[in-house]
Amino acid sequence: VFPPSASDYYQFDDLLTLEERAVRIKVREVMEKEVAPIMTEHWEKAEFPFHVIPKIATMGVAGGNIKGYGCPGLSITGNAIATAEVARVDASCSTFILVHSSLAMLTIALCGSEAQKQEYLPYLAQFHKVACWGLTEPDNGSDASSLMTTATKVEGGWLLDGQKRWIGNSTFADLLVIFARNTKTNQINGFLVKKDVPGLTVTKIENKIGLRIVQNGDIVFKKVFIPDEDRLPGVNSFQDTSKVLAVSRVMVAWQPIGITMGVYDMCHRYLKERKQFGAPLAAFQINQEKLVRMLGNIQAMLLVGWRLCKLYESGKMTPGQASLGKAWITLRARETVSLGRELLGGNGILSDFLIAKAFCDLEPIYTYEGTYDINCLVTGREITGIASFKPAA
Ligand code: FAD
């Protein structure tokens, strides 16, 4: 249906199954036809294009690798390819989907009761409702396991008190997956919080320079009552969140892969079309070196991302391997989009040309799902046996 993209230089597509290729084709078609034309305008206004949600739903990717409950049951690789294809056109759209699907829905699938899975997953898979996932707090970012939002047991349920920060989709989410500290056990528990419950307020975080379409919120809980049936029975310690983060960290690593593929394809076209000194920009050796460096980075990122998926699918992926993938891919992607920005000259700073938007969107991705540094420390701990998260006493 589509010509191979210039960025797929080592014929990565050959590594995919027919089903995974079909996912890629479907997602690319919807993103290019339905989503691409409207995203720059919404990015500039920092507004979410709610009218496009039904189009996004037609891609059939919400629920990713969850099997049953109306979810697509993709392979991890298929889910990763879908993530990259969305990010290739618009990183905000990809973050919107990942928060909803690979964080919130996956938490329900892995840690929810049978009744919760049956109640929530089918309509979330159709995007009839939108979900968010709240772990980070104003005073607990990288140190998320020290979170301070509390859950106190009362007759028939729980009272949540505290704050969350940066929570994507939270300003309009119908369902909030929230982590809080059980005041009796001091362990982390998970809760399903419905929009508009008394005591819950969400305020949009303004003035972001990246992922401007994603609506991130500050959330405050003041004695928010959650009935017993909305506690996630499978979240009984912070470690239980790591089952979800193992998958979502792999998916997040595929966002920069998609972003840089989109940037490369745009640069490749631009350099052949625009002329200076009587020749196309592509004719200058310095520009070719930059283009080749971008292409080399992308081939390496694709192969690392692919291997990470295969390790996960065979049950062998370690937390350190996932963290290395996320950290290294975002680092290489930062270099790659910077080169793209340079290659477009002045147009490289205009959001109209995709690259400036991609350049800015990569910054929060470098930071969320564990910053570059924190992911290095996770891998560092695994390869040395020495944890260095806390300064020496
Ligand atoms: P800090 O923890 O304050 O870190 C600041 C700097 O110090 C970083 O460079 C960090 O690497 C470094 N640092 C911290 N500790 C160490 C250490 N031990 N050793 C070395 N360096 C260290 N969270 C959610 O729960 N849900 C969401 O949907 C969500 N979406 C997000 C969307 C966006 C756009 C952004 C920006 C963030 C989002 N987050 C979300 C939060 C995100 O996960 C945190 O921003 C991230 O974990 C970093 O925390 P922090 O911003 O508080 O930085």
TrEMBL record:
One of its GO terms (biological process) is fatty acid beta-oxidation. Residues 19-126 form the Acyl-CoA dehydrogenase/oxidase N-terminal domain. One of its GO terms (cellular component) is peroxisome. It comes from the Eukaryota. GO terms for molecular function: acyl-CoA dehydrogenase activity; flavin adenine dinucleotide binding. Its cofactor is FAD. Pfam families: Acyl-CoA_dh_1, Acyl-CoA_dh_M, Acyl-CoA_dh_N. Keywords: FAD, Flavoprotein, Oxidoreductase. This is Acyl-coenzyme A oxidase 4, peroxisomal.
